[in-house]
Amino acid sequence: MTFSKCVCLICQSTIAIPKKGNVERHFRTVHGKYDTDFPPKSELRKRKVKELKSQLSGQQSFFTQQTSKAKTATEASFRVSHIIVNNKKSFKDGEMVKEAFIEAADSLFRDFKNKAEILSSIKALQLSRSTVTRRCEAMAEDLTQQLWKDIGDCECFSLQLDESTDVSDTAQMCIFIRMVFSDITTKEELLTVLPMKEQTRGEDIFQSFKNFIEKTQLPVYKLMSITTDGAPAMVGR
């Protein structure tokens, strides 16, 4: 059996529905001469079956090993991408990191018997600019999903609104959320950053906040309080 499918030891064909009748039909139809060449219960047949099993096991082990290596390389790619974005570096720096890995490994593992295998694993790392971009997007999406799951699971939450400007002098409103769970634990996260495209009057801030709630369907029935940074526009002056 391989992945819930029967695999023929003789021809490597798979039988989708693992029923005795289907297996017997395949054997009689495709391998009708097998009983003649290898009589049932004979030593010749036992040796042949053992040989076929060993071949299949070796093939499966090879593909499992390749799959495991691919998963390991993908995990390493995510870890490096996480370090890059945490340090606010350019996505293209992944290629530089890979090059540094290879150069360092050539010296560090010079006397290792499996040096070639180590270098091969490093070279398999996918750290191009586009790959690092996709990794960061995937991590951001996962964090967003986790945050909204926490919002759904929490008992109540409060919000903090902070209106400021970024390096390009564009007004932004940051919304922070503090959640309280049934076991009385709390968690605080950045919920979103809303760009204030035009004016930053109190009504503009309120409308932007209202639009966000409607768009995301934030469960406002769990909202206990809202606090602001005390700016005039925030307090209605």
Can you give the helix content as a percent range? Answer: 40-55%
Average pLDDT confidence is 81
Unreliable parts? none
Q: How are helices and strands ordered from N to C?
A: EEHHHHHHEEEHE
Number of domains: 3
Structural class: alpha+beta
CATH class term of the largest domain:
Alpha Beta
Strand content: 15-25%
Widest sheet: strand ordering: 5-4-3-6
**Radius of gyration (Å):** 30 Å
Helices, by number, come to 7
CATH topology of the largest domain: Ubiquitin-like (UB roll)
Distance between the termini: 73 Å
CATH architecture of the largest domain: Roll
The tally of strands reads 6
Give the overall form. elongated
Biggest sheet architecture: 4 strands, mixed
General description of the model:
There is one protein chain. The chain has a four-stranded mixed β-sheet. It contains seven helices and six strands; from the N terminus they run ββααααααβββαβ. It is elongated, with a radius of gyration of 30 Å. Helix 3 crosses helix 6 (129-153) and helix 4 packs antiparallel against helix 5. The protein folds into three domains: 6-64, no CATH class; 82-153, no CATH class; 154-228, Ubiquitin-like (UB roll) (Roll). With 237 residues, the chain is an alpha+beta fold. The protein has helices spanning 20-30, 34-37, 43-86, 93-108, 115-123, 129-153, 202-216; strands at 6-7, 14-15, 156-165, 171-180, 186-195, 223-228.
